[in-house]
Amino acid sequence: MAALPCVSGAAVPLEAQAVGPYTMHRLAGRSVARVMAADAMGSGIVWEIDGERIVIAASRHLLRKDVAAEVTFDKGAALKAEIIGYSQQYDVGFLQISTAAAPPELLDELRAVRPVLYGVGSEADRAAFAEAYAGAEIIQLGVDSAHRDMGLFCGRIAGIRFVPVFNTHMLETACYARAGMSGGGVFDRYGRFWGLICGGEVAEDAAEREADVTYSLPPRTIAEEYALIREEMGK
Q: Domain range holding 76?
């Protein structure tokens, strides 16, 4: 399926019913951020918000030890973030921002993602997933580094695939992704979160480095890795 071109838009309140891709772009923008770490730029998603902190999940390859990070949200607020841990196995890491440092209007606007916790660990899980969701429409949202703005592409779920470079089963989508979108999110038209973008495959004859097949880390894996980090932190 051909992807729609990159577009931009502001956030609006989340509705209960399914919506079109451009409205979904605005809705999902409440949960997606630009992440800067040293001279590297990528994306992140709001994984958790509580009374003390905002937790951002991003690609591990973007984050480095002892490197200051800055997170910029859709409304333009740029905040210093602390890197709190990395997965030892998967391409995901976590940052946190004190809610005390965030403007009240930003806290009113932000929303943590609503993950779909599907299983991928067994053949039966993967077959059930393919039967239920293959072909389902999704959008992918993250930073388009060439334009330094949020980018949107529309596509469909292809299934679950073992990807050697990530050494795990990933959500595979027939959807474009551009440089900078790693750490961004895969969303459906109900606003649910299906995966953290990690990379993809670029066509041999592509004029630009943009993937036409994308691989994303499943939410259940992210949740398990975050639980391990919280346990290490003693929280």
A: 32-113
CA distance 53 to 47: 11
- Burial state string for 103-140 with b = 16 or more CB within 10 A and e = fewer than 16: eeebeebbbbbebbebebeeeeebeebeeebeeebbbb
For the cut 90, the answer to whether the pLDDT of residue 173 exceeds it is: yes
Q: Are residues 169 and 186 in the same domain?
A: yes
- pLDDT tens for each residue of 7-44: 322 222 334 455 565 666 677 788 999 998 877 889 99
Count of structural domains within the chain: 2
The Cα 235–Cα 229 span in angstroms is 9
Compute the distance between CA of residue 154 and CA of residue 139 in angstroms, rounded to an integer. Answer: 4
Q: What is the pTM of this model?
A: 0.86
Residue whose C-alpha is closest to residue 186's, from 158, 165, 224, 164:
158
Q: How far apart are CA 2 and CA 157, in angstroms?
A: 13
Tokens found for residue 22:
């451009």
114-115/192-201 β-pairing: parallel
Separation CA 122–CA 199 (nearest Å): 23
